[in-house]
Amino acid sequence: MSLSIASLNSGSNGNCYYVGNDEGAVLVDAGLSCKEIESRMGRLGLSMSLVRGVVVTHEHDDHIRGVTVLSKRYRLPVWITAPTLEHGRLSLDKQLVRIFSGPQTIEIGGLQITTFPKSHDAADPCSVIVASASVRVGIFTDIGLVCDNVIRHFMQCHAVFLESNYDENMLEQGRYPYPLKRRIRGGGRATCPTARPSNYLWPTVRRF
Ligand SMILES: [Zn+2]
């Protein structure tokens, strides 16, 4: 069975990824408005009727902006960790909240969703792999720093959405205020002592 994958948007103005087959689909993050998600899916010929749930990777606004409206409008369950729910202050219908924690594999609409912690300055950030039959698609966002977890899971994927735009020269010469530069450089290191800059992944990409 073929798997459809789409990045509806990626970056600090909103993240939302669609992964699904003929029987079911999931959205990983909903950092665009509900209307924008509907519009972009429509342009790609993707139907909301196949979407069985939303998986939230962390509470930053560019990952959760549309979650509440989307969940209400389509009665979509939202898979989220307890710290992310608390810090995101989402007003979700309790009946539609599905709590997960730590590394876990969840089944949503016939798809296997594997979550694992990542380095990022959020309450309980995770990355996600969506699998259908033997095909595994990774959604790794906000990868400023790469830890062993990311590398291990990256190697298991057939395709990966990788949001990783860390560049030391751009950061140094850019106009960000110093506290933000410091946050980008090392914000996630405290949660993952082995974290390295994301360009560590490039040799792995070339072997792919
Ligand atoms: Zn973030």
Which of globular, elongated, flat, extended, rod-shaped describes the shape?
A: globular
What oligomeric state do these chains adopt? single chain
Q: Give the number of helices.
A: 8
Strand order of the largest sheet: 1-2-3-4-5-6
Percentage beta strand: 25-35%
Query: Which structural class do the helices and strands define?
Result: alpha/beta
The radius of gyration computed from the alpha-carbon positions, rounded to a whole number of angstroms, is 17 Å
What's the main sheet like?
6 strands, mixed
Question: What is the residue-averaged pLDDT?
Answer: 86
What is the number of strand segments? Answer: 13
- Helix residue percentage: 25-40%
The set of bound ligands, ions and cofactors reads: zinc ion
Report the CATH C-level class. Answer: Alpha Beta
The named CATH superfamily: Ribonuclease Z/Hydroxyacylglutathione hydrolase-like
Tell me the distance between the termini: 23 Å
In the CATH hierarchy, the third-tier topology is known as Metallo-beta-lactamase, Chain A
Domain count: the total is 1
Secondary-structure element order, N to C: EEEHEHHEHEEEEEEHEHHEH
The CATH architecture assignment turns out to be 4-Layer Sandwich
Which spans of ≥5 residues are poorly predicted at pLDDT below 50?
Answer: none
What does this protein structure show overall?
By secondary structure, the protein is an alpha/beta fold. It has a single domain (4-207), classed as Metallo-beta-lactamase, Chain A, CATH 3.60.15.10. The chain has eight helices and 13 strands. It has helices at 34-43, 61-64, 67-74, 82-88, 148-154, 168-173, 178-186, 202-207, and strands spanning 4-9, 16-20, 25-28, 51-55, 78-80, 97-99, 104-108, 111-117, 126-132, 135-140, 145-146, 159-162, 196-197. A six-stranded mixed β-sheet has the order 1-2-3-4-5-6. The chain has a five-stranded mixed β-sheet with strand order 7-8-9-10-12. Strands 11-13 form a two-stranded antiparallel sheet. Strand 7 (104-108) and strand 8 form a beta hairpin. Bound molecules: zinc ion. Residues 58, 60, 120, 122, 142 line the site of zinc ion.
